[in-house]
Amino acid sequence: MRFPAVLALGLLAVAAHAERMILIPLDNRPAAGQFAQMIGSMANVQVTMPPYETLGRFIQPGNPDAILDWLESQPLESVSSVIASTDMIAYGSLIASRTNDTPKEVAIARLERLANIHKRFPSTKFYLFSSIMRLAPTATRSTATWRLQLSKYAELKDLYRQEPNQELKKRIDALLAKIPAYEIIKYEEARARNVEVMRELVKMVARKQFDYLIFGQDDAKPNGPHIPETERLRKLTANLYVTGNVYFCEGIDQLGNVSLSRALLRKSGWAPKLRIVYSDDSKKTLIAAYESKQIQTSLKDQILSSGARIVEGDQDYDYTLFVNVPDRDPEKFAHFQQQLTQEIDQGFPVAVADINIGKDGTSDAELFATLLENDRMFKLLSFAGWNTAGNTLGTAIPAANVYLLARRLKGDPLQRELAQREFLLHRFVNDYAYHKFTRPQAYAIIDANARASREETYGDAFEEVNNFVAQDLRSHLDRTFEDQFLGRRFYAGTQQYEVEELRDVRIFLPWPRAYEVRLEFKLQAKLVGN
Predict the structure, then answer these.
(1) Strand (E) positions, 366-442?
(2) Which of the four pLDDT bands, split at 50, 70 and 90, describes residue 13?
(3) What is the domain class of 270-411 according to CATH?
(4) What residues contact residue 162 under an 8 Å CB cut-off, 6+ apart?
(5) Quick one: 207 exposed, middle or buried, by C-beta within 10 A (0-12, 13-18, 19+)?
(6) Alpha helices in 428-458 (DSSP H)
(7) Which of 126, 194, 260, 526 has minimal Cβ neighbours within 10 Å of its Cβ?
(8) pTM listed for this prediction
C-alpha cells in the first residue's frame, strides 16, 4: 500500500521525533531484545540495541567491552533511559554468566565503567536487570550426560542444608558419583562469584550509581542454592534502605520488557491499575514450573516491577489481566472463559497471560480456541503464553501497560495501533503455532539426523532444520494473518483503517537449536473509504 503524500510526511515527522531508549539485552535471542523493541514501538519509542554481532550467539559470549565502547559513542543526552543486562555487561551474556570464565574483578570493573557513563549523563535514567543463576547448567552436547544430575544435586544439597538426614545424604552421594568433580567446582565458583557481583550491584544502587535494579530468578525450583543467595541479597537490600529501587522477579528473559514499561511509566508519572482474574483462584498458590514462588506472588512482583498497580474489590481499574493457571478445575475454567469472552466481546480492555503451559512450551489449546472465535484475538490489549510463568506475565503486562500509556500520550495513532496488533499477531504465531506445530516437527528432523542434536546443531543439518522452520512457520503466520487480521477494521484517532497486508517477513533460528525462533514482519493498513 502507498500512503498519501501528506500522511507519509506526517509519519516521517513523528518518527524523526520519536523518543529514544537504549537496551543492552541478555543476548541476541528475540525474547531478550526484539520483544521490547516491538512494545516500545507502540509508544513511538525507538529502542536501540548494540550492533548484533557484539551480542554473541549461544555459547559464544558477546563482547562487553565493545558494547561499552558503543554506548560511550551514543548521544546519551538525547536518550531518556538506558536498560541494561548486567549479565551482558559483566560476563558477555546470560549463558556466559553460568560459567566461571570471567573473574569477579573484571565483571565489577565493567559495571563501574557503566556507572561512569551514567555519571557523565545524570539526566539519563539507568535501569539494570540481573539474573540469579538457574539450577541447571546450559544444555549443550558437552553437558548432556551430567547437567540434570548436577541440577538435582544442587537442589538436594539445599534441602540437606535445611533438614539434614541420612536418606538425603545417600541420594547426594549417588549423584556425586555421576558428575565430574571439576564441573561441580566450576558451577559453585560461578554461583559464588555471581552473588558477590550482585551484592556489589545493590551497593551501587545505594550509592546512586544506578537508578533501578531487578533481580530475575532464572529457571529454578522451590529448593536450591538460589534460595539462600536470594535471602542474602534481600537482606542487603533492606540493610541499605534500597527496597524501593530493587525488585525480585521470577524469570529473566522478560526483564527487558518489564524495565521498558517501568521506565516509560515513571517518566510519564502514570501507573496503570489492573484487576486480576484467575482461571482457578485455588491454584494461584501453586508454584509454576521452573519457579520458586507462588503464582500470586510472582504475578505481584511482575506487576509492581513494571510500574503498574493491582486493584482490589470494586476499585476503578484500567484493564483486566486474565491469568490462565496450571491444573485449573474444568468447571472454574468454563466460568473463566465465559467471563473472558463477555468482556472481550463487549469491548472492555483485556490482557491475557496463559501460564498453563505444557511441558512442550505450548499455550493452552482450549483457551487458544476461544480466542480464535469472534475476532477476539484482534480485540485484546495483549497476549502471551511462552516458556515460563514469569516470562509470560512479564510480556503480557508490559505490552498492555505501554499500549494504554501510548493512548494517553496522544502520539501517532496509526503507528500505535499497528504496532500493538503486530505484537499480538507475533505472540499468537510465536507462542502457539511455533511450539505446537513447527517445533515438534523441527525436533523430528533433528532426531532423525545423526549429525544433529536438540542441544546443538550445525552445518548442513542446521540449514535443513532452519529452512524447514522458515517455510512451515510462514504458513502458520499467513494463515493466522488471513483468518484473524486481514480485513479487520480499527480506529486510529478519529479515522478508521483496515488491515491490508503482511510484509517484510523474515523467519530464522537465532541459535543452533530449534528451541526458539526469530519472527519478523510488518502490518500495513489502508484508510477506509479512501
Answers:
(1) 382-384
(2) very low
(3) alpha beta
(4) 223
(5) exposed
(6) 439-447
(7) 526
(8) 0.94
pLDDT at 17: 61
| Rounded distance between C-alpha atoms, residue 110 and residue 113, angstroms | 5
Please report which helix (H) or strand (E) contains residue 460, including its range. helix 459-484
Half-sphere exposure of 525 toward its Cβ, with a 13 Å CA cutoff? 25
pLDDT score, position 7? 35
Query: Integer distance in angstroms from the first to the last C-alpha of the chain?
Result: 12
CATH topology assigned to domain 17-143+183-269: Rossmann fold (3.40.50)
d(CA 337, CA 407): 27
CA distance 101 to 64: 14
Cβ count near 359 (within 10 Å) = 6
Q: What is the pLDDT of residues 154-202, one digit of tens each?
A: 999 999 999 999 999 999 999 999 999 999 999 999 999 999 999 999 9
Question: Strand, coil or helix: what is 139?
Answer: coil
DSSP-assigned letter for residue 308: -
Using DSSP bridges, classify how beta strands 495-508 and 489-492 pair: parallel, antiparallel or unpaired: antiparallel
Distances in whole angstroms, Cα of residue 234 to Cα of each of 90, 131, 200, 237, 446 = 21, 14, 13, 5, 43
Domain residue ranges in the chain: 17-143+183-269, 270-411, 437-530
Tell me which of 254 and 360 has the higher pLDDT.
254
Q: What are phi and psi of 384, to 5 degrees?
A: -155, 150
Q: Let me know if 66 is exposed, middle or buried by CB neighbors in 10 A (0-12, 13-18, 19+).
A: middle
Over the stretch 246-299, which tens digit does the pLDDT of each residue have?
999 999 999 999 999 999 999 999 999 999 999 999 999 999 999 999 999 999
Distance (Å, rounded) from C-alpha 398 to C-alpha 23?
A: 15
21-61 pLDDT, tens digit per residue, is 999 999 999 999 999 999 999 999 999 999 999 998 999 99
Distance of alpha carbon 3 from alpha carbon 109, whole angstroms: 50
Smallest CA-to-CA distance from 529 within 492, 498, 488 is with 498
Beta bridge partners of 311: none
Closest to 201 (Cα-Cα) out of 101, 91, 276: 91
17-143+183-269 and 270-411: identical CATH topology:
yes
Helices (H), 125-222: 147-162, 166-176, 181-206
What mean pLDDT, rounded, does the chain reach?
A: 94
**Residue entry with cell 568433580:** 181
How far from 273 is each of 248, 265, 294, 309, 372, CA to CA, in Å? Answer: 20, 12, 22, 5, 27
Strands 309-310 and 382-384: unpaired
Joined grid coordinates for residue 124: 539519563
Q: Residue 530 — pLDDT band, cuts 50, 70, 90?
A: low
> Which residue's C-alpha cell is 501517532?
412
Reported residue count of the chain is: 530
Res. 5: pLDDT tops 70: no
CA angle, corner 46, sides to 45 and 51, nearest 5? Answer: 155
Eight-state DSSP code of residue 357: -
